[in-house]
Amino acid sequence: MMAPSAHLDRSTVSFGWDRNHDPAAVVASGTELFVEAPDCSNGQISATSTLETFTAMDLTQLDPISGPVFVEGAHPGDVLKVEILRVAPLHFGWSAVYPGTGLLQEEFPDAWFRLWDLTQGDSTELVPGIRVPIEPMLGIIGCTPAADGPHPSVPPHRAGGNMDMKHAREGTVMFLPVEVEGALFGLGDSHAAQGDGEVGGAGIETPADITVRLSVVRDRVLRFPEYEINRPLERASAARAGYYATTGVGPDLYQAAQAAVRAMVHRVVALYRIEEIEAYMLCSVAADLKISEIVNEGTYVISAFLPRDLFLDPPRE
């Protein structure tokens, strides 16, 4: 017996989370939901866009959420199980530096924009000799919060939202707390690639075709989202090639993360002679931040890891 199915097209979006939003669809538990999701600009950026297009965007259209979807039988206190079955980017992506955002916004205060060609196979070129593997994921995936809204799309919340976790991708199973009747599920902000941290403020933003299966779980209690990853955490080529790693050390986790990213930007520039802004965006789409130490008397260590399989040519140092 085939599972029930539903479809949302690229125009079926809402802005922010609000328990008073009308559902875009009503589905039974177990439904496979096919979503034609716009990119985070809601279609304002195309494969021919420029920096001028980027800086002229209507900011009220950013970070649309496909949905909300009312799941029958989902009540506050339940859990929504979301199986990510497919995330397929379209033929182009884009990355940008938004003034006033990103970990190194003081070093990179100006707007910057670039397009990515996603038709080159399983990776895409930053500059000659540096290629980023295409590993599609979802930045936004969540249920609607119980508190009166509207709540903006960008910050994450207890029921999910814009968590920007690189492993929210095909094969992963998300478990989301349900806080309102019907869960009012939504997703969006699809990326062709993104590092854990999204340190420059953008991944490789792209529209995508997405399929998820939504099921209500009643024998589990969650305060925050949880997930199961049913594949290796690293791709085989990265495991073989190894990593560049830098650290930041100090009493503030955010400042330690800044220091680790700053050091990685400088390291990549020194090794591969690319522009600092290119190295910064490479970190945003491909480097992972990790807490390496958090227990030693208020002094913390954050590490940034950048896979060496991105680099086709030997370093020039």
TrEMBL record:
Top-rank lineage group of the source organism? Bacteria
Q: Name one GO molecular function term.
A: hydrolase activity, acting on carbon-nitrogen (but not peptide) bonds, in linear amides
Which Pfam families does the record associate with it? Answer: FmdA_AmdA
Signal peptide limits: none
Q: Which InterPro entries match?
A: FmdA_AmdA
What is the protein named?
Acetamidase/formamidase
The scientific name of the source species is Glaciibacter psychrotolerans
